[in-house]
Amino acid sequence: MKKNVLTSVILVGFIASQFSCIIPDAYAFRLTRKQKKEAGFLNTAQISFDEKQYEVAIEYYTKAIEINPDNAESYAKRGNAEFLNGNYKDAVKDYSKAIELDPNRVNTYYNRGIAKANLSAYEEVVDDYSKEIEINPDNANAYLNRGTTKVLLKQYDSAIEDFSKVIELDSENALAYYNRGIAQRNLNNYEKAIEDYSKVIELDDKNIEAYNNRGVAKFYLKDYSGAIEDYTKVVGLDKNFKSVYFNLGIAKLGIQQYEDAVLDFTKELELNPENDSAYYERAIAEAKLDHNVSAIDDYTKAIEINPDNAEYYSERGAIISKTEGDLQQALQDLNKAIELDDKDSEKYLTRAIIYCKLKMYLPAIDDLNISINIEPNKTQAYDLRSYAINSLNAVDKKDNK
To answer: Cα separation of 156 and 138, whole Å?
Structure first.
């Protein structure tokens, strides 16, 4: 089973600010009475916005819009207030109206893209960032967030192009290197991912996410010692960082430091007692140390938390069989494992071993035939099938005497 190394989520840029709509007193005498009233509402709205009183700001932007429904800035500003108040659908409506009134307004497509991202409308988000880039080709944040969205859409190659453009515009943009590293890792370009995370660390040597994700990339390159070094750095920066002890544990499994791995998984479970993967991995380490009772207990706990994982049943059944425990229980575990995953030749092989121990040679032969059909080069399955056939023939001869 592929190790489920846990990584950090990708980050998204902040909403862009827009120019102030407050009108200097020196120009007030030029305004009509209606314009002065609109300006007063806009000024009050801006002050409320700056004080993070977003509902009040929305109220006064609405009053200004009632006076002058053709002012794109009023809609854009109200959209910002709606966004920061968590009203993403209303924010999209306001940004759309601002765009309708002023299609070339800088940052409005960008802000609408962020609002849509919060509504998970990612295809539309890419379109908005692309439009923003047409208007303002030097907007690094637009490239950054478009790349981020493409990662969410699994368009990794295109995302890398966007992050590279950000770096071209701003060579010290740590977030661009970080997110490009995530895209590279998703393409299994682990060396390039490590380069990007290393650049982040060069720019910010306290960046916990970068150390963690560089450790993940090193793990997949089987540089377990390097991964342990990075995860240890994470612990030094934040001993409660999510899943770092889990990641440390599986890296130590890679270099066969089983006792240390058990300690790390135990620490992970102290912080996150519902992590079924930690119980599973600790069971593997315990089994390597021949602590079979503890391993079975951990597999059982993993199953209690996640009863739909075929591997948990398969591994528990295998270790029960190996230790000559309750073979009927082992058989039940493999039956359940195959029910959940009937495409794994190893599970049929394991069940066939249990059948042979129970002297049930016919079903063992059936399972071995399936195992060989799935994986034709599985030598152990051929050898066991020969044993099962010979044993069955011996039984038949004995019965016919």
So the answer is: 22
